[in-house]
TrEMBL record:
Keyword Acyltransferase among record annotations: yes
Alphabetical list of InterPro entries matching this protein: Acyl_CoA_acyltransferase, GNAT_dom, Ribosomal_N-acetyltransferase
PROSITE patterns according to UniProt: GNAT
Species classification: Bacteria, Bacillati, Actinomycetota, Actinomycetes, Streptosporangiales
EC nos: 2.3.-.-
Name listed for the protein in its UniProt record: GNAT family N-acetyltransferase
Length: 216
C-alpha cells in the first residue's frame, strides 16, 4: 500500500469540525475546483506568488501541480506538507506546514487558503490550530512563523487569536505596487497560553523519519 512507502498518507489531524490529511486524487480534483471558484476578493492579492490571478482552469491545474511538486521534492531536511481541509467530508481548503532542518531549528512555517464560501466561519482559525498542535505537541517545535500583508485583516485576526506576536516587516512588490508584509512569530509558551481548540493526531509516529525526527 502507498502508506507503507509514504506514511504521511496515514496522518490525520482532527478538530471539532475538521479533518486535515493528504487528499486522494479525486479529493485533490475537488480542491482544485474549490480554488477555481475563488479564494479571495479579486481586487486584492493576499499571496506572495499571485497564483490566483490566472484563469480558473489554470488556477485549478496549479493546485494539482503544486501538490504533486511538494511531495515530489520532499526530503527530511526540507519539507512542505499541504494538508487538505475537510468539513463534513468535503474539501474546503489547504493548510500548509513546512520546515527546513527542523531537527535543528525546531521552527515551522504555515500558510493556507480557504474557499470563499467557507470564510468567516472560524474555519481558518481551526485549521491553523490543528497544524500548530502538530508542530508543538506532536513534533516538539519551539516556534512557528507566519506572515500576512498589512491589509489581510482576516489572517491577522487568526494570528492574534492564536497568540502570534509581530516580528518585523518585509517590503514586497505585488501586482506592480509596494505591499507591506508583516511577519509574525508564535513561541511555544504563547501557543500553550492561547490554545483553546482540541486537536487529535493519528498515525504520527511512522511519519517522524520523513519529518527529520527519529521514531520513539
Amino acid at each position: 500500500m502507498l502508506v507503507d512507502h509514504f506514511p504521511l498518507f496515514g496522518l490525520r489531524l482532527r478538530t471539532p469540525r475538521l479533518e486535515l490529511r493528504l487528499p486522494s486524487p479525486e479529493e485533490l480534483a475537488e480542491l482544485a475546483e474549490v480554488a477555481a471558484k475563488g479564494v479571495h476578493d479579486p481586487e486584492v492579492m493576499p499571496f506572495l506568488v499571485p497564483w490566483t490571478d490566472r484563469p480558473a482552469a489554470e488556477v485549478a491545474r496549479s493546485v494539482v501541480q503544486h501538490h504533486w511538486s511538494q511531495l515530489g521534492a520532499w526530503t527530511p531536511e526540507e519539507w512542505s506538507l499541504d494538508l487538505a481541509v475537510f468539513l463534513d467530508g468535503r474539501a474546503v481548503g489547504v493548510q500548509e506546514i513546512s520546515a527546513r532542518d527542523f531537527a535543528i531549528t525546531r521552527r515551522v512555517a504555515t500558510g493556507s487558503w480557504l474557499g470563499r464560501r467557507h470564510q468567516g466561519q472560524g474555519i481558518g482559525t481551526e485549521m491553523r490550530a490543528a497544524v500548530l498542535h502538530l508542530a508543538f505537541a506532536g513534533l516538539g517545535a519551539h516556534e512557528a512563523v507566519s506572515s500576512a500583508f498589512a491589509d489581510n485583516h482576516a489572517s491577522h485576526a487568526v494570528s492574534r487569536k492564536l497568540g502570534y506576536q509581530p516580528n518585523g516587516i518585509d517590503r514586497r512588490a505585488i501586482r506592480g505596487a509596494l505591499t507591506i508584509d508583516r511577519r509574525l512569530l508564535l513561541t511555544r509558551t504563547a501557543w500553550d497560553d492561547h490554545r483553546t481548540i482540541p486537536v487529535t493526531i493519528d498515525a504520527l509516529e511512522p511519519c517522524l523519519p520523513l519529518l527529520g525526527l527519529a521514531s520513539t
